[in-house]
Specification:
Length: 73
């Protein structure tokens, strides 16, 4: 069964977050864990496969170190 994700209300030109599973840009969030999750990944993942907010932030900081030095994640 697909996980339920909610659109964050952003517009087409607004900044999008990286999906916590595939890193694609998305405006959808998995609210039980407060992480960005694209619709494609939501269709194939389980709750237990989704990282916690801290795990996601840590992974983004490792994958994009140039961003973590400019902004707070």
């Amino acid at each position: 069964m697909a996980l339920e994700v909610k659109h964050d209300g952003s517009g087409a030109r607004d900044i999008k977050e990286n999906c916590c599973a595939c890193y694609a840009k998305t405006s959808y969030w998995y609210t039980p864990k407060d992480v960005a999750l694209c619709k494609i990944c939501a269709a194939g993942k389980t709750h237990d496969e989704i990282p916690s907010k801290q795990e996601w932030c840590d992974a983004v900081a490792l994958k994009f170190p140039h961003l973590s030095s400019r902004t707070s994640i």
